[in-house]
């Protein structure tokens, strides 16, 4: 019999839902007598396969807010979803309670759907917000007023943000788009801004990181949230999966044919994309470097590659270009020696777990903060000099990582971070222990 019914609410865009689903699986495995209803849009739920479901998790679709069938731009789809979110959530929760014949006792949600806090209040149940992306980015958002006050009145440029203890090695130029530069009405910025205003109402915060990974951050969050739970990386909390990863394009067998630490893996995550000229620069840089590469590139973007590039790479065997890879397994493969990335938070964590130095080309959101963390604070990666890919910067970055002493130091520092992260998710490790503490709030036992 179900002792506790917990609702988990996803933000159904980019990698957010997948990341939260990893946490949901870990919770469900720890509390077999509880039931977990995972709420997201139909489209986002369709990316989970039945192998990933435990018996005590059910998927509950909620409306995407789209009333006419025409194709939507990503940003418009987010706006529509948020517009009807509260109503959709109330309906989804009712359906979940009916299906389980059990009232929801606690609502865990992606902090991006911060309106969940209001619905939890209406139902008089606990709200547990989860920051799936970079915690350092959340720190910047929580300090947005101070940043705007100081950075706006002084010309900061490349000076360090020494007035912020957790960002004292970052520059104003590393702050997220929208917070300090660019359009403050950009939907991602608005979500983050409102999230940062709502979160202090909660005394609980869950993050996808480990204790001690980012300097001073634990003490800041502990001071501001009575119940602070760094339980990451979420994807490592899961009970071991017996099935091999889905590898529809044969990426892992292609990697098997390469010597250790000789291949570059390229992926810019689920939403970032390059304009055709920068795509060409990256392709030319990869080819000119002579480093074999595996590139995750959406089919519709592949058609913008320089003519003959894919055929040439196939014929020489120098490059494999596929629309999707099993990235966590790719980064753990011994052949991979560098990761060309947009520095989304999941990608950064997965690179640490693989012990692979990064080549960083950030776009928006938390990616600029993460890039500075990787390249300057941790010194486990190379940032593109001009902020964008050019043939020369790609060749130079590979030269550093694959051939120079600096690259060897990056690898060894990355292995130190990897050891820390693996220790945190072992039995009695900090993330495992924090998760057990969190479960007492979520399930009441
Ligand atoms: N990913 C993957 N295969 C690919 C490309 C991406 O599995 O070919 C996954 C990757 O493992 C990561 C997520 O997509 O978990 C991307 O998340 P991240 O936070 O790095 O970036 P976002 O997509 O949110 O910008």
TrEMBL record:
Gene3D superfamilies: Glycogen Phosphorylase B. It is an enzyme of class 2 (transferase). Signal peptide: none annotated. It comes from the Eukaryota. The keyword Glycosyltransferase applies. GO terms for molecular function: UDP-glycosyltransferase activity. CDD domains: GT1_Gtf-like. Keywords: Glycosyltransferase, Transferase. PROSITE patterns: UDPGT. Its EC number is 2.4.1.-. InterPro entries: UDP_glucos_trans, UDP_glycos_trans_CS. Belongs to the UDP-glycosyltransferase family. This is Glycosyltransferase. It comes from Carex littledalei.
């Amino acid at each position: 019999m179900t002792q506790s019914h917990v609702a988990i609410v996803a933000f159904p865009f980019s990698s957010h839902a997948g990341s939260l689903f990893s946490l949901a699986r870990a919770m469900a495995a720890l509390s077999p007598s509880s039931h977990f209803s995972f709420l997201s849009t139909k489209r986002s739920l369709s990316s989970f396969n039945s192998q990933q479901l435990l018996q005590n998790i059910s998927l509950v679709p909620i409306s995407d807010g789209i009333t006419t069938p025409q194709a939507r731009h990503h940003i418009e789809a987010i706006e529509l979803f948020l517009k009807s979110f509260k109503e959709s959530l109330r309906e989804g929760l009712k359906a979940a309670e009916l299906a389980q014949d059990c009232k929801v006792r606690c609502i865990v949600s992606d902090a991006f759907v911060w309106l969940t806090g209001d619905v939890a209040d209406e139902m008089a149940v606990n709200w547990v917000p989860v920051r799936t992306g970079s915690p350092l980015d959340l720190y910047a958002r929580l300090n947005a007023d101070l940043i705007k006050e100081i950075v706006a009145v002084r010309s900061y440029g490349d000076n360090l943000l020494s007035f912020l203890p957790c960002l004292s090695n970052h520059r104003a130029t590393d702050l997220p788009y929208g917070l300090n530069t660019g359009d403050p009405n950009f939907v991602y910025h608005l979500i983050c801004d409102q999230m940062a205003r709502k979160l202090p109402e909660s005394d609980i915060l869950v993050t996808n990181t480990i204790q001690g990974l980012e300097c001073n951050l634990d003490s800041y969050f502990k001071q501001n949230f009575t119940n602070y739970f760094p339980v990451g990386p979420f994807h490592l909390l899961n009970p071991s999966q017996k099935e091999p990863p889905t590898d529809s394009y044969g990426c892992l067998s292609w990697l098997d044919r390469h010597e250790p630490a000789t291949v570059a893996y390229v992926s810019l995550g689920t939403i970032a994309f390059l304009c055709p000229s920068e795509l060409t620069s990256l392709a030319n840089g990869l080819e000119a470097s002579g480093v074999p590469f595996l590139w995750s590139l959406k089919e519709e973007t592949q058609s913008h590659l320089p003519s003959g590039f894919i055929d040439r790479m196939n014929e020489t065997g120098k490059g494999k270009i596929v629309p999707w890879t099993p990235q966590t397994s790719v980064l753990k493969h011994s052949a991979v020696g560098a990761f060309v990335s947009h520095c989304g938070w999941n990608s950064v964590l997965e690179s640490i777990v693989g012990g692979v130095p990064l080549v960083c080309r950030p776009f928006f959101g938390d990616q600029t903060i993460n890039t500075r963390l990787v390249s300057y604070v941790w010194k486990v990666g190379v940032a593109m000099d001009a902020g964008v890919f050019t043939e020369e910067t790609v060749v130079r970055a590979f030269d550093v990582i694959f051939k120079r002493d600096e690259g060897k130091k990056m690898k060894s520092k990355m292995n130190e971070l990897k050891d820390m992260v693996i220790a945190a998710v072992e039995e009695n490790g900090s993330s495992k222990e924090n998760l057990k503490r969190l479960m007492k709030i979520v399930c009441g036992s």
